Known about the structure:
111 residues, single chain, alpha+beta, transmembrane, 20% helix
Amino acid sequence: MLLSVFLALFLPCAEKGLSAEELENLPKVAGKELTMGDECAVCLDEIEPEQIARRIPVCNHGFHIDCADKWLSKHPFCPVCRGKIDRQSLIGSAGGGGGGGEVEGDDDSPV
């Protein structure tokens, strides 16, 4: 009995990772637009300025897209700070608030 109480209090609930739809709705940015550093915490390689990266909205940490998707498909939180991703903001937001796959920060294009 005491063990089950301990486990319930101190072990986090196992949550499923993000779905393919949720992953696709996370923002994508150019590596040069990352403000929280240019190293991917999953693979520890540098994110090049011209590479497209996935940014986690809750904390603005950025990762290579493949690295982020592998991690986030198993865990619904940032691998650096453990900030939990708000799933409700990702569902059905293609082209909207979640980023919808558009690359932000390309200010070089003519208006």
